[in-house]
Every structure is written in structure tokens, then in C-alpha cells.
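Q: I have 507 residues here and want to know how they pack in 3D. Can you give me a structure?
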Amino acid sequence: MAVVVGEHLNIADVVAVARERAQVALSSRARERMARSREVVERIVRDGRTIYGITTGVGELAGVRISVDQSAQLQVNIVRSHSAGVGDPLPEEVVRAMMVLRAHALALGYSGIREAAVELLLAMLNRGVHPVIPAQGSVGASGDLAPLAHLALALIGEGEVRLEGRTVPAARAMAEVRLHPVVLQPKEGMALINGTQMMTGCGALAVFDARALAACADIAGALTCEALHGLVDAFDPRLHEVRPHPGQGRSAANLRRLLSGSEAPGGSQAPVKVQDAYALRCMPQVHGACRDAIEYTAQVVEIEINSATDNPLIFPDEDRVISGGNFHGQPVALALDVLAIAVSELAGIAERRIERLVNPHLSGLPAFLTQDSGLHSGLMLAQYTAAALVSENKVLSHPASVDSIPTSANQEDHVSMGAAAARKALQVVRHTQQVLGIELLCGAQALDLRRPLRQGAGTRPAYDTVRRAVPKLEADRVLAPDLAAAGELVRSGAVLRAVEQTIGELA
């Protein structure tokens, strides 16, 4: 079933288009809304009214009057001049997310763009024509100007695109798939490049993955808890009912279900102890706080997905054109900084659990989870790798949104840096997926050294999934492939699916 653009999209819709190449279609009501707002633009041009970005220059050049005859050329010039990105190209999934979000924002009917331009954008998505968009160059103030300009450049048959694994000129790719570039009309260049779709597209993908990471953190933590004979009293519902943060309660409930039936926590093999270290005992509190932060970000991203972020905006019912600042990325920038911090914390506490697994003074297990330590280093370096990623996350978690640098001759004197926040958040998510993969790998190895042991209802399918991908470490071998395979179990959702197929959906 196609994702319908122009009504209401959610994060899952964006991910379906970005990663699963779901087809997209334009709603009939969106066509009507766009036609009505377009009529306002054409009337402005006919009447010669002075409206920002339609009959004036942009930014600091807003005071420069543009003649009616030059208005269409202005739009092409805007797209070309703003295509100033640098750096590596954005990943295909981010580009696809940007494309569907830009089409959706335009289809809301406040931008004054013609239906033909939006239909071309959707056709490019459906036929796999993806603009090459450099990752750097947006300060997130008048939206993601440079990235969106590179997107718009492909619509007019300029710049480069990716098609079937090849980088080719946009005009040639359009001809191959039997599409025709759009000829921009007044207001359309502005409509295409004003908006927050790069940061929001990255944000939708990051939130989707972060939600899965929160569940995987509970799974990996439960596996470690089992291997270290952790005490399940810390997950007692009575504790969490008297401090009722939503995420904390959900995480505690997950841990109880995952460990249900396990004989390890507090079992006959367990050492006598009163309580565990924080990395075990406080999993609900830490994981839960991260969950709540992720949900805050999700709420902001979903609002932004369905927002009109162009400038100026057109309100056809009142025949009004209002210039404002809906393109400013501050709401998204702040939320994505929070997301990076929250996901970084999931990795941070996981690394502390990894340390407890490999450290014989803390685990009661052979050093570095190998039977013949000294001759073999076992999983010593797995913890190093986790530590390196966690430390890098700490740097990446410095908020981008507290920074600002003026642009456009100080006309745009406060910017959000939302694009930087978005790219950092995605990187933190990737690092944390790998750290949790390492914890799962170490937890499975530790459980092998605890045999025989009856595992919990949820920890057993997690262990089995790890072991199908990575065999038990009997003697030293190159660890990089094992770590990569373990990270992929988290990234792909394989571990989460295996657990939920056995015990049902986690909270």
C-alpha cells in the first residue's frame, strides 16, 4: 500500500519510504489545497505586489525589488546559488526521507507551489532517482537551505543523482526513467528550499532506531543480569509505582518478563549479596529516563513532519501571504540534542555492564571470558571497542543547538544548527547499536561459562540469536567480524524480533 502524502504522516511512514522503498502517492485533497494557494501566488505576480521571495530578493537582499518578468528566473537563481553543500553525500535513506517530507510539507497547501513540482518529486521517489546531497552546509535557520537546494536542483534537471547504483547527471537520469524536469515558476524555488526536512528526516530515522535501541538495552541488560546473578528485586513493580516515570516502569516491566523463569538471579549458584552495582540495579531508572527523552523527541519530530515550514506562507482563505520564521529549526535541534544525549546514556551504562562481565574481580568468571586467559586474551578488546565508542558519543553529545553563528549579512542572526544536531544523533545511534551488540556478545559468552543454567523466557531467544550469528569463543580469533555481526543483530532488529516472537511485544 502506498504512503499517502498531503494528509498525515508518522515516523513509521517516513521509515517505510526511506528504507523499504514504499511507494508514495498524492492525496486528492492536497491537489485542491495546492491549487488554491497557487492561485494566490499568480494573482500577486499579476498585480505586481511586493512579497518576499516572490517579487523581492532573499535574505539580506529582501529589499531588492524583482520585476514580474524576472520572477521566474529568480527562482532558478535561488536554487542554483543555494546549492552550496560540501562533504560526503547523505545516505540514500536520508535523501529519501527528505524527499517524502518535502513533498508532504508542500502538499499541505501553504507554499503556493504547483502540483506538477510535487508530483515530479514523488515520481522520482517511486522510480529510485535520488539527488546527490552533500551532508554539510546547513545552519538550520532558514531551514536546511543548502541540502534542500541540492534536492531542488535535481528537479530542474541539474546537478547529480543516484540511479540504480550509479551517479549520473540529473538530466540524463530523468530521461532514462521518462521524467521531465520542472520549469520553476514564481515562488517555487523558495518553496522547495525553505524547510527543516533534512534535520527532520534524520530525526525520524534516529527516533525509529532509538526506540528499538531502548528495548534492546533491556534485552542486553537482562542477559548480563542473568550472567552476573543479578538480583531481580530491583525490578519489583512496587519500587517503580512509587516513582512513576513512564519509561522507568516500562523498562522494569520488560526486565521482569525477560528474566521470568531464569534460575540465575539469586539462584543456587549465585553469590550471597545484598544489592548489585548501579549498572544492573538502576537499569529501569537509566533506561527509563532515556526512553522518556526518546519519546519527547518523537513527539517533536512528528509535529514537524506535519508542519508547514516554508516562508512566506500562503493562507488562501484570507488571501494572505505572511512572512515569518517557521523554517527555524530550533524545536527539532533541541530535541535531537536530547536524543543524542539519551541514546549515548544507553551506551554508557551498557559499557559498564560489559566491564563487569569481562573483569574477573567483578564477575566471578574467567578473565575476559576465556578459559585459558594469559595465553588467550578472550574478549578483552571488545570492552576497549565499546569504551572507544562510548567516549566518542560523549563528544558527539555536546549540544549543537546551543551554538549560533550569524549569516546573510546579519539578517539571519540566530541559527539552530539543527542539521549538525541531526547528523550527530544518527552517529550516536549507530555507535550505540554496536555497543549493545558487544554487550549481547559478552553476555552470551558469560552464560556459556555458567552452564548448566536455565535461562529466562526472554533471555533464551536473545542468546540463541547471538549464537546463530557468532559461535562461542573457544580460543582467540579475529574479533572484528564477531563484533560486526553482533552489531548487525541490533541494527537489523533480529534480536528484538526473536525475543518478541517468544514473549510478545516489549513495553
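Q: Anything worth noting?
A: The mean pLDDT is 94. The radius of gyration is 26 Å.
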